[in-house]
Design goal:
Largest sheet: 7 strands, parallel
Shape: globular
Number of helices: 14
CATH topology of the largest domain: Rossmann fold
Distance between the termini: 12 Å
CATH class of the largest domain: Alpha Beta
Number of strands: 13
CATH architecture of the largest domain: 3-Layer(aba) Sandwich
Order of helices and strands: EHEHEHEHEHEEHEHHEEHEHEHEHHH
Bound molecules: uridine-diphosphate-N-acetylglucosamine
Structural class: alpha/beta
Strand content: 15-25%
């Protein structure tokens, strides 16, 4: 029996692609193990699936000055020795790393143990963690064709991003029921990224009185961002984070308003739901979401609002435009050559493992 270790964490976008791979790996009879941080979101998300989880110490690697820059390297070093010990014990035939800071010590320890490594990069340009990890990897899967230029040629493979199969079999009625909505008004699904977005939350909540006249709104607002004052508002449902029911919410949605995290936008594209993207600004990130959103906008899949331009009126205008032109957005999305990346990645795993 072949054994695989998956790793990825920090935000859900570094975990859901690993979750998407689980059914195919199980079907092929893999013995699957997961290494993540002690307390990260990956621990909670992976707990739902029946696979052994190993926590390691994890520290953030920053490009900016912060007092934690003095303590975090020790946490990463500790994580390295912990990962090394775990890998020596499990002896996997391959490591699949989805990125995020926790994966750096795991990848480096796997290299030391001579375990083949496949990395997946969802964004247009590699994040810092993957940049450090790529030299140790045999293969690097990428989501966007543009990313191929940022990875050594012999390692880069254009695969697309693994999307959880269950997202394609959502049930609209179940989604409406889950939110307490009727079938008579269209539904807007708001996804502020896996950790929520305060800026988006504030604008959405500020425009609820107008919005709820014509729409029902289901709002995935992120941990700690629920507003109890809005609990009983008719036509509005808020959740910190949704797991299994996400497929039903997608099925119920006529329009999605989302951050431009690589996984969320690929899911929206695969499901062909008219959408408005509000990428995380350059102030708060390296700008990867801006590139993701620009790529989608130029292909006619999405209406994009820059965070600096986000206001009640710009969002209202965007909603009207997308609703009025929904067919042209859907037609453009139908032309996308999105791969079934799960099969491609499975083949790559089989070719690369020991
Ligand atoms: C702030 C930050 O660092 N953001 C990055 C992070 O975003 P983030 O983790 O938000 O990533 P994505 O949008 O890519 O993925 C979020 C995932 O969580 C799922 N989901 C979300 C909400 C919810 O309630 N339930 C649920 O299942 C989505 O369906 C999706 O699969 O990783 C992405 C992929 O590397 C990057 O593009 C983003 O720039």
């Amino acid at each position: 029996m072949k054994r695989i270790v998956l790793t990825g964490g920090g935000t859900a976008g570094h975990v859901t692609p690993c979750i998407a791979m689980l059914p195919a790996l199980k079907k092929e009879g893999y013995d699957i193990h997961y290494i993540g941080s002690y307390k990260g979101i990956e621990r909670k998300l992976i707990k739902e699936y029946d696979i052994p989880y190993y926590g390691i110490s994890s520290g953030k690697l920053r490009r900016y000055l912060d007092l934690k820059n003095f303590t975090d390297p020790f946490k990463v070093l500790k994580g390295y020795f912990e990962a090394y010990k775990i890998l020596k014990k499990i002896k996997p035939d391959i490591l699949f790393s989805k990125g995020g800071f926790v994966t750096v010590p795991v990848v480096l320890a796997a290299k030391r143990c001579k375990i083949p490594i496949i990395i997946h990069e969802s964004d247009m340009t590699p994040g810092l963690a993957n940049k450090i990890a790529i030299p140790a990897a045999q293969k690097v899967c990428v989501n966007f064709p543009e990313t191929m230029n940022h990875i050594p040629q012999k390692k880069a493979v254009l695969t697309g991003t693994p999307i959880r199969k269950e997202l394609f079999s959502g049930n609209k009625i179940k989604g409406l029921d889950f939110c307490g909505f009727t079938a008579n008004k269209p539904v807007i699904l708001v996804i502020g990224g896996s950790s929520g977005s305060k800026v988006i939350n504030d604008v959405i909540r500020g425009m609820l009185p107008t919005l709820l006249r014509d729409f029902q709104v289901v709002h995935l607002c992120g941990k700690g961002n629920l507003d109890p004052k809005l609990d009983n508002l008719e036509g509005y449902a808020q959740f910190e984070y949704i797991k299994k029911e996400l497929s039903d919410l997608f099925a119920a949605a006529n329009l999605v308003i989302s951050r431009a995290g690589a996984n969320a936008i690929c899911e929206i594209l695969a499901l062909k739901i008219p959408n408005i993207l509000i990428p995380l600004s350059l102030k708060a990130s390296r700008g990867d979401q801006i590139l993701n959103a620009e790529s989608f906008e130029s292909q006619g899949y999405s209406y994009v609002i820059k965070e600096e331009d986000l206001s009640v009126s710009s969002l209202m205008e965007a909603i009207q435009t997308v609703i009025n032109n929904k067919h042209s957005y859907i037609e453009a999305m139908k032309k996308s050559k999105l791969n079934d990346s799960i099969d491609v990645i499975m083949n790559l795993i089989k070719e690369t493992q020991l």
